[in-house]
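Forum: Protein Structure Q&A
Topic: Joint prediction for protein chains with partners

I've read a bunch of threads here and the consensus seems to be that you should model interacting components together rather than docking separate models afterwards. I'd like to see that in practice. Below is the full input, 243 residues plus whatever partners are listed. Could one of the regulars post the assembled result?
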Amino acid sequence: MELVWEPMLVVGQKAKAAVAAPSDDAALMSRYQGGDAGAFETLYRRHKAPLYRFIARQLRGRGEADEVFQEVWLAVIKGRERYQPTARFTTFLFAIAHRRIADRARKAIRHPQGVMPEDAADLGLGPLQLVEGAALGAALAAALAALSPEQRTAFLLRAEGECSVEEIAAITGVPFETAKSRLKYANRALREKLIAWR
Amino acid sequence: MSEQADTDLLRLWRSVAHETPGALIDRRILRHAHLAVRAKPGFWR
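Posted by a regular:
Agreed with the consensus. Here's the joint model:
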């Protein structure tokens, strides 16, 4: 029997319709909880790319991003019974990723390994896969890399997770005003660095 | 103005950021997902 949940609460006025309707994600997760692996596959294919970019843009290189990305999905699989549709699935997913990235950052401070690359070209992520405008993509990536970690997280939660300010605050564990300010300054800094491209 | 500028920035980001995980990772995760529900404890055995 397929479980059907009540429509979920959408946090924040600006929580726009994401690529997928949140309630649809919750229903898929519910079906996976009931043993439907195909539902998980749909969820995975829908969210893998934004989640991957969210992770990759905050870590040192592709290898580390691959590891954390897998850890996050394995945590979703393992913790599937605990998922409750009280928040968007995306919020649930990106919150797990944020915690894993923060763990890595803490470990990196305790056990530094080499130089933290500031230039996007050194991130080892492979180039932004552009057919055209490669230089603009590189400039944007470099500008993102130059933000503070908190601002970068705020921007990526908005850009990749389509998170509202309320959701960014909840995921990062800061007050609403702090999240709003981080996002505002991140956007401003990125725009300023890209002003030459206008 | 600022809201429009933020929207333009997001649009720009989405037009240039395209990294995705590799196919091997896809297969590994989906395999785990399938095994996890297949390995669910059965009925009264």
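Chain A is about 60% helix and 0% strand.
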